[in-house]
């Protein structure tokens, strides 16, 4: 069918629908889009691919969370923490040692004090888990990296008991003094950069997870849209549907219906992620709250999916056979894949101003910004600016995709050229 035939068939964006509903009135634009979207949701939600895909993502989140726990069980040591204490704070360590002996956790072993310089070197070398020294505001625990929570808690409790005893002896049991002493805690002074390294790795893992979740969700549901477009063309179902709705209504109904399922899947995965975050301290090193990251992820999925899905739908409408879908949408898939590669290459913050500019521009922003936000390399205003630019680009993409889809959706036979479909869609 030529583009002139397409035009005469009434498939352009200005064509009126010809079949009214049962009451004799044609459905409004919103109702028509909703009817198409509901059809897509009902059809797709029952598919095994959607159900098993959602279950697989949740299982993957749980497995990722279980890896550190399993590694700790398999490779963690059974011995207690070795701590050396300066003479001024040795009574505190002694109380912690005595307290650990009566607790179900790992015991604390008091190591011989050789001096502060030697203690710091032993901590860095891993020979000591911590060293307890005297600071200006009280005892300070020297560690290499992130302190062991159980050890820190044991020393805090021992310091509180020691301070309470001193307060009772020296203040005549003054209530305020005793309460102040009870709230005392041991400070932490990190030696070396191991703590920064651990925080960087935690942020990188979260950033990777968010970016790949976006990539897989956008690509998967975008391809569903493309396949659905060609299925309807190949089976001639689209001709029946266009008797009741306009081409652009059919396009947006399909995109929104499948996108709603994608958003539901992303929501399920985020709920699983929140559950994991509540059970572990894995997200404690993030520069922003997990709630902000989740809100950002949803916003990027919605805009990113709509941007790429409309592009995929327009590309798929140019062909009429399932065998030709892959070649038709391959350029769009490359447009989706290249930003992911760039995101992975710039994860360490290299590239300077060029990367900062690239991160706020489509099609790179849907993948670069969530990663940079998780890594602490982008401010919140940059994230908002990038979302606004993507929303503006989406408006242009919707107009272009609607023109191409309207001009090509009824075309059969060989592949239609995009410029011919664009011209036919404008008539």
UniProtKB/TrEMBL annotation:
GO cellular component, one term: membrane
Cell compartments where the protein resides: Membrane
The organism of origin for this protein: Streptomonospora litoralis
Any one Gene Ontology molecular-function term assigned to this protein's record: ABC-type transporter activity
Keyword Transmembrane recorded: yes
Protein name: ABC-2 family transporter protein
ABC-2 type transporter transmembrane domain mapped to chain residues: 48-401
Main location: membrane
Record region (Disordered): 1-30
Top-level division of the source organism's lineage: Bacteria
This protein's record includes keyword Membrane: yes
InterPro entries: ABC2_TM (IPR013525)
Transmembrane region(s): 49-75, 205-230, 251-278, 290-320, 332-360, 380-402
Signal peptide: none
Pfam family, one: ABC2_membrane_3
Topology in membrane: Multi-pass membrane protein
PANTHER family in the cross-refs: ABC TRANSPORTER PERMEASE, ABC TRANSPORTER PERMEASE PROTEIN NATB
Alphabetically ordered keywords of this record: Membrane, Transmembrane, Transmembrane helix
């Amino acid at each position: 069918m030529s583009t002139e035939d397409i035009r005469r068939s009434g498939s352009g964006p200005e064509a009126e629908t010809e079949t009214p509903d049962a009451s004799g009135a044609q459905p409004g634009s919103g109702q028509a889009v909703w009817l198409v979207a509901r059809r897509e949701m009902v059809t797709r939600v029952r598919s095994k691919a959607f159900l098993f895909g959602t279950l697989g993502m949740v299982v993957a989140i749980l497995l990722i969370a279980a890896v550190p726990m399993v590694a700790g069980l398999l490779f963690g040591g059974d011995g207690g923490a070795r701590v050396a204490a300066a003479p001024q704070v040795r009574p505190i360590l002694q109380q912690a040692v005595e307290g650990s002996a009566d607790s179900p956790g790992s015991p604390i072993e008091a190591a011989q004090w050789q001096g502060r310089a030697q203690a710091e070197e032993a901590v860095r070398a891993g020979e000591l888990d911590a060293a307890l020294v005297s600071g200006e505001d009280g005892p300070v625990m020297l560690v290499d990296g992130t302190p062991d929570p159980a050890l820190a808690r044991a020393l805090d409790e021992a310091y509180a008991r020691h301070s309470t005893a001193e307060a009772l002896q020296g203040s005549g049991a003054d209530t305020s003094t005793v309460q102040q002493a009870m709230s005392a805690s041991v400070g932490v002074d990190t030696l070396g950069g191991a703590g920064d390294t651990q925080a960087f790795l935690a942020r990188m893992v979260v950033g990777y997870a968010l970016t790949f979740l976006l990539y897989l969700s956008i690509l998967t549901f975008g391809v569903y849209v493309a396949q659905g477009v060609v299925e309807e063309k190949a089976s001639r179902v689209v001709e029946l549907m266009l008797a009741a709705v306009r081409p652009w209504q059919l396009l947006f109904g399909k995109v929104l219906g499948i996108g709603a399922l994608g958003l539901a899947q992303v929501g399920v995965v985020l709920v699983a992620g929140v559950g994991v975050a509540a059970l572990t301290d894995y997200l404690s090193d993030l520069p922003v709250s997990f709630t902000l990251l989740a809100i950002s992820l949803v916003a990027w999925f919605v805009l990113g999916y709509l941007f790429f899905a409309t592009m995929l739908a327009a590309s798929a409408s140019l062909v009429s056979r399932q065998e030709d879908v892959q070649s038709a949408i391959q350029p769009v898939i490359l447009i989706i894949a290249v930003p992911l590669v760039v995101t992975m290459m710039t994860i360490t913050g290299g590239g300077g101003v060029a990367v900062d500019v690239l991160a706020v521009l489509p099609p790179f922003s849907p993948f670069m910004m969530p990663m940079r936000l998780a890594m602490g390399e982008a401010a919140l205003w940059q994230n908002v600016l990038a979302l606004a630019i993507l929303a503006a680009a989406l408006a242009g993409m919707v107009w272009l995709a609607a023109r191409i889809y309207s001009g090509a959706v009824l075309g059969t036979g060989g592949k239609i050229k995009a410029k011919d479909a664009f011209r036919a869609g404008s008539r």
